[in-house]
Amino acid sequence: MKALRYHGRADVRVEDLPTPDPADGEILVRIATTGICGSDIHEYRGGPLAIPLDTPHPLTGDRAPVTMGHEFSGTIVALGSGATGLRVGQRVAASAVLRCGTCPSCTAGHPQLCRTLGFHGISGGGGAFAEFDAFPAYLANPLPDEISDEAGALLEPLATGIHAVGRSGLTPGQSALVVGAGPIGLMVVVAALAAGADQIIVSEPSPVRAKAAARFGATAVLDPKADDVVARVRELTGGHGVDAAFDTAAAPTSFDTALAAVRPRGHVVNVAVWENPTPLQPNALLFSEATITGSLAYTPAEFTRAVEIAAGGAHDLESMVTRSIALADVVTHGFERLAADPGADIKVLVRP
Ligand SMILES: [Zn+2]
Ligand SMILES: [Zn+2]
User: How far is C-alpha 22 from the chain's CA centre?
Assistant: First the structure.
């Protein structure tokens, strides 16, 4: 079968691999479609960040070259021994969070903070930019008929948005600023609406992404190139600032903007992957008593919630897809193009 493998920075290749066999506790899935994630592009342009290059990953035992792809839907074609609760023919989407199951984070219900955390499609052990993918059955989430293959490939980023909103402590009736309206920013908008936010301000310079933010329910969309975002947020919130701000952009001023835009004791959540450090003036915390927190991936319950929200049909998640490309074209039309001009697309799906 064909699969996209990461060899190193700016070096990904479509190669011929044997179709995997599901090991004990694994399932084999025929991939329907797989999204290219911002993290994939970070690995390509600025990595390796989470891809094991020299030392094998403790959970998968693999190191580069590894097959990429972790936002996908597909159909189960075989079950390994010990893979229970699922059946051949079932459509599934999958969590990417590989965990040990026994460390303090895992036993406390935070597998995304596992001491030996890995990501399926990043840390080895298979990946979904491929015709077939074998992975642990515990990652699989069955898809109801209401969820299309395309929407199924968007559940992983939706779960990430749900977790970020959870980390912010946002409660019904509150306000949020989302910096960046790429797929994760848009999923934070969807999740904030589902959590009952009544004011969601988005800052996004790309016209195609700004338009999508309005369509997904942002109450105001600002252009950081033209607007003084912090001043406009103040105006829109009666001079107070938002209850929660989410940095999904990792842009030179995005973190400062998020921190300056929250109300006293507001919450700033970093959801972005940074390729470089960013300056922080701690006085901004002193004078606002703001809380800064991080948000990584999601819990299994949050993935289940993503399935519920998508099945509820309130949002046309598929409209986030700006292009669908063949696996043979994933390097040129996918990785190279997204690394050079990320703002021109929202979500690109790959069809094996
Ligand atoms: Zn992702
Ligand atoms: Zn663990």
Answer: 26
Residue 275 pLDDT greater than 90, yes or no: no
Q: List the chain domain ranges.
A: 2-146+313-351, 158-294
| Ligand 1 center–CA 39 separation, angstroms | 6
- Closest ligand to residue 155's CA: 1
158-294: CATH class: alpha beta
Q: Does domain 2-146+313-351 have CATH number 3.90.180.10?
A: yes
- The alpha carbon of 156 and the centre of ligand 1 are apart by a number of angstroms equal to 7
> Ligand 1 center to residue 119 CA distance, Å?
9
Enter the tokens of residue 68. Answer: 């990429």
Model confidence pLDDT, tens digit, residues 49-81: 889 999 999 999 999 999 999 999 999 999 999
Q: Point out the ligand nearest to the CA of residue 122.
A: 1
**pLDDT confidence of residue 342:** 84
For residue 24, report the distance from its CA to the centre of ligand 1, in Å: 26
Cβ within 8 Å of residue 141, ≥6 positions away:
92, 93, 94, 95, 155, 303, 304, 307
The residues, any chain, with a CB within 8 Å of residue 8's CB and separated by 6 or more, are: 48, 53, 64
Residues with CB under 5 A from ligand 2 (ion): 99-100, 103, 106, 114
E-assigned strands of 180-282? Answer: 199-203, 220-222, 242-247, 262-270
Paired sense of beta strands 220-222 and 262-270, if any:
unpaired
Q: At what angle do helices 254-261 and 229-236 cross, to 10 degrees?
A: 20
CA of 71 to the centre of ligand 2 (A): 22
Whether a cis peptide bond, with omega within 30° of 0, leads into 20 is no
Give the Å distance between the CA of 287 and the centre of ligand 1.
35
Ligand nearest to the CA of 158: 1
